[in-house]
Design goal:
TIM Barrel; 11 helices; 10-stranded mixed β-sheet; about 350 residues; 2 domains; alpha/beta
Length: about 350
């Protein structure tokens, strides 16, 4: 069996067909079957010659994911999927309905190596990176189930299991496939990459000539606290991270978002608010204030809503855009890694 054809960008497939002395339009034909019509066999590509279909079967296969478990929130209709990969590993994806958009939250790794103390994703350690096709297939599966209601995903966030920028080349390929008109055709500005703060990769991403949104998990206002919550801060301290984000914003002309989990009695007092304001003044940013989604294996609790309102008002008064984002799917453990961990518990 050849490689998953979804591991290749449209440009790479164009070069492949050129090497086979095929016309350029073959790329559009093949990707139309794969990404628009959701077929999983080259034999179904009836507008392509039998000879070319046989060549494709020799060189590629069309990858898919196996659904292992699905949960639906009774509170907000969020859907969480646990997929099993070909090697038996598991990943999670989340489908989040909003009034004016439908968001897919995608995983980029099996597990995570960065050890943020409030997160479930890395509690079983890091296993491996996902291939581009495994990332794209999460989105394609969710799009397929939406089709019966004439709906489709129009917003993508790389905020599932793993650290996206630690799987840089593969997520970049996945983004280019998701963005391409021949494939899933989702605009770059509707795609958000989240990171715990890998400065070298943030700077590299700023030079890729693609205007995707960047979201940075900040969650603390000083190095002492962030070192405890997010060990990556020991390598990339806060001031250096803010500087890299400023460069990203200037180069891409996008407003960088800082995610700030409000954890009760950890990072939610008035001193933290003052430090956050001082840290972010002088440039245009957006802050997403998020009430922590409790994880049963951890002792952290969410801050009360009134504390989030206090932070929001304080930031807005100083000219910083701030929103309060309610965690979705609380009743189905939709925070990253929880369904994955439950599955491991059952084994």
């Amino acid at each position: 069996m050849g490689q998953d054809i979804k591991n290749f960008t449209i440009e790479e497939l164009e070069r492949y067909f050129l090497s086979k002395k095929e016309k350029p339009y073959r790329v559009k034909q093949v990707t139309n079957w794969i990404y628009k019509k959701d077929i999983y066999s080259f034999d179904e590509m009836t507008d392509i010659s039998i000879e070319l279909r046989e060549e494709l079967k020799k060189d590629f296969h069309i990858g898919s994911l196996k659904l292992f478990e699905e949960s639906i929130s009774k509170i907000d209709s969020t859907k969480k999927f646990l997929f099993q990969l070909n090697d038996g590993q598991f990943i999670e994806s989340v489908l989040i309905p909003h009034i004016n958009r439908i968001t897919a939250c995608l995983s980029t790794q099996v597990g995570c190596k960065f050890g943020c103390v409030f997160c479930a994703s890395g509690m079983k350690g890091f296993v491996r990176n996902l291939y581009p096709g495994e990332i794209v297939n999460q989105l394609q599966y969710m799009n397929f189930i939406l089709k019966k209601n004439a709906q489709r995903i129009n917003n993508v966030v790389f905020m599932g299991m793993g650290e996206p920028l630690d799987n840089y080349e593969n997520i970049l390929k996945a983004i280019r496939i998701i963005n391409h008109p021949y494939a899933l055709n989702i605009g770059a500005r509707k795609i958000t990459v989240s990171t715990c703060g890998l400065i070298d990769k943030i700077l590299k991403l700023s030079q890729e000539n693609i205007q995707i949104e960047l979201s940075v998990s900040l969650h603390a206002t000083n190095d002492e606290l962030r070192n405890r919550l997010m060990p990556i801060n020991k390598r990339y301290p806060i001031k250096e991270l803010i500087s890299a984000c400023k460069i990203y914003s200037i180069r891409t002309k996008r407003i960088v978002t800082f995610e700030y989990l409000l954890i009760k009695d950890v990072n939610d007092d008035k001193k933290n608010l003052k430090e956050l304001i001082n840290l972010l003044q002088g440039h245009k940013w957006k802050v997403n204030l998020i009430l922590y989604n409790p994880i049963k294996w951890l002792d952290f609790k969410p801050s009360p809503l009134k504390r989030a309102v206090l932070f929001q008002n304080g930031l807005i008064k100083t000219g910083i855009i701030a929103t309060i984002r309610q965690s979705k799917g609380r009743d189905i453990d939709a925070a990253c890694g929880q369904l994955f961990l439950k599955t491991h518990e059952k084994k």
